[in-house]
Amino acid sequence: MRNWVEPHKVTIPAGLENEVGGHRLLSQLLVQRGITDVDAARAFLDSQYYRPTPPGELAGMEKAVERIEKAIQIGEIIGVWGDFDVDGQTATALLVSALRGLGGKVEYHIPIRERESHGINLPRLKPFLDGGVGLLITCDTGISEHEAVNCASKRGVDVVITDHHELPPRLPKAYAILNPKLLPSSSPLANLPGVGVAFKLVEALYQNAGHAGVVDSYLDLVALGIVADVAIQVGDTRYLLQRGLDVLRDNQRVGLQVMMELADLQSASLSEEHIGFVIAPRLNSLGRLADANPAVEFLITQDINKAKKLGEELESLNARRRLLTDQVFQAAQTQIEKEPTLLSQAALVLSHQTWPAGVIGIVAGRLAERYQKPAVLISEPPSELTRGSARSVEGCDIFEAISSCRELLTGFGGHSMAAGFSLEAELIPDFRRALSAVVQSMLGEVISPPKLIIDGYYELGDLAFEFVKELERLSPFGPGNPAPILVSTGLTVKQFNPIGRNYEHLRVLVEDKYGQVNKVIWWNGAGWKSRDPLENSEPFDLAYVVRTSDYRGQSDIQIEWVDIRPAETAQIEVNGDQLLMEVHDFRGEPDPLDRLKGLLEENEPQIWCEGLDRRMLANLGIKSSDREELTKSNNLVIWTTPAGRNELMAAIDKVSPSVISLIAVEPQNTQVEPFLRYLAGLCKYAINHTQGKVKVALLAAATSQSKATVRLGISWLEKSGFLAVMNEEAGELSLAKGKQTAVDEHTYLLDQLKELLAETAAYRAFFSTADVDSLLPTTKNPTNQLRGATG
């Protein structure tokens, strides 16, 4: 269990929320990420507003470009030396393709893991150079390769290093070195992976050649490398990923088209999650279990038959990788069970003679996540040098920790969260003790549980598709920009069952205190030995990530298990602002209008009213506001029963009242046919009077429904030929008249719409009768939560 950090109150700068639009939580999350300026928010959310850093900011760029241009001009063979992980594969493919595009003669080599390991293997380098290479360019490797650079130099071959790994105490004597670690840590380029550095080099070359726009076609490769290498997504790294995802969604690369078809992926809705869990593992399987050189051909070929053959090979290797990974993981768990003292060390170090070196890094990552400490797995084949792979946790620079043990090692490399090394088998016990001592000093004598930053509290039943889409405006998610963590409280487990190819995951049905049942996916949850929350009926609070899903063309949300805690320890907060207010309950009174007039005489409250009742109140001279018009106020009267808890809490968050008066009148037009007629009238008005421009949020407020319900209604109207949606930007629709045809019932849309309207009706029925403390978490005066309180 992790140490949950409750949401903290943030001050949203004036203008930011209006500029960003959408749900207030979006603005809060931007501020929590240090983005308080309107221009910075625009640039973060939309890549077209970001100003990328010129490639010349990388030290050594001018010299590297000049030497490569000379090689192309005189017809020298350029040798590209890459690495076998996805970052190295994509960097190699990018350089080979781009340099050939400029007329260069290019050969390439990616080391074979089993025979050469990482870096530049001298016995393999010499025959590579003997093929006539006049210029050697490394990608995703080379920064520590003194011997290889000296070997090339003695043969009259210049070396241009492009790498992103940590700098050694002394740099190789290369012709030019491009490495973002040479820049200040505050530089927007500081977190580029290997393929990002290669892209900046190609960008500079193509700018000089007068073909700057061509480089955009390589951004898909950059996106693959960024996600697969778990690069920190800030500055130019985030920008390149955003742009690269756009290119991937309009995928023109034959190999990737084949892969997506085999994996049943829809390119139009591709996300960083698909890269990390579907595409990257398949590409990585080549480097882990075979020869990664064919991956370059797979990524650059235009031959569909060749791509299909390679794609099928990748599928087969990926299935084998999954099997080996599961076997090594189970073997590691068995070691821990037999020798529990292994977990008493600050770093978990395990080894075995039969573990394949190609998958131990994956398993180390799983163990680090499970036990929340650095994990190291070592493959020790008999009579050979052992190979280790390490993965770390927040607060521990594993490269630095391993570097401190260098006297025990024959070689090492990596970065703060992942590293690899080799050593003699008899030194493994010494290495375990030395590494644990270093990690202990880094993390402190008492290693506290890792932190889990909570971003907000929401009821599971209020996680509407539209709300989740709003949160995903912050994507792509990853290191430096984690997916928002939400919490729902007081849950119990109704049922759970294993799912997945090897039944490694769990599908858990949870029920909240209102009887709402939701499905939650617990990735790799089936392997946990202790499942206390699943096997007893004690209430718990669930921390989770929520995403949109379009599995098999069905739009839905997916809730993913992150962590739990006993319900009794919960500290109830909503969106970071503790609710301390006085609530007056006037629900169910025979004359609500008379009660409202009385409240108006006592003070000047803001009245939240939606739907047709606004016209009725206006005719009586009573001013009201819908959810979009609400502003800060000490007193809030809730006239219309809210469409859902999400809408309720958003309104309270927006107004920040100290006094709330509940009247809760049921709105009109809540059945499907009246709702569609009313919505159609609003859309017709927009087409005739506002050039078709109308915001979804305004339609939701006018109909007193959720935005998800309105969107579904719009879809039905469009399918039925009543209107056409020409465009949507920042939640604003551009509507036009449709081609009127005989109305098709579109049963599947009507069924979904009826379901959403029924959910809203169920919440309103609950709102009308439930105790106030079930609606609003905290009040100043608990006695005023009783029904019929007069204030």
Q: What spatial order of strands do you see in the largest sheet?
A: 3-2-4-5-6
Q: Major sheet, described briefly?
A: 5 strands, parallel
- Taken from the alpha-carbon principal axes, the silhouette is globular
Question: Using only CA atoms, what is the Rg?
Answer: 30 Å
Topology record:
Elements: E1 3-5, H1 16-20, H2 24-32, H3 38-45, H4 61-74, E2 77-81, H5 86-101, E3 105-109, H6 113-116, H7 122-130, E4 133-139, H8 146-154, E5 158-162, E6 176-178, H9 194-208, H10 219-228, H11 235-249, H12 254-262, H13 272-289, H14 293-300, H15 304-338, E7 348-352, H16 360-371, E8 375-379, E9 386-391, H17 398-403, E10 411-414, E11 418-423, H18 428-443, E12 451-453, E13 456-457, H19 465-471, E14 486-499, E15 505-511, E16 517-522, H20 532-535, E17 540-549, E18 556-566, E19 582-585, H21 592-602, E20 606-608, H22 613-619, E21 635-640, H23 645-655, E22 659-665, H24 672-689, E23 693-695, H25 696-703, H26 707-719, E24 723-729, E25 732-737, H27 747-769, H28 772-775
Parallel strand pairs: 1-12, 2-3, 2-4, 4-5, 5-6, 7-8, 13-14, 16-18, 19-22, 20-21, 21-22
Antiparallel strand pairs: 8-9, 9-11, 10-11, 14-15, 14-17, 15-16, 17-18, 23-25, 24-25
Helix pairs in contact: 5-9, 5-10, 5-14, 7-8, 9-10, 10-11, 10-13, 12-15, 13-15, 14-15, 15-16, 24-26, 25-26, 26-27
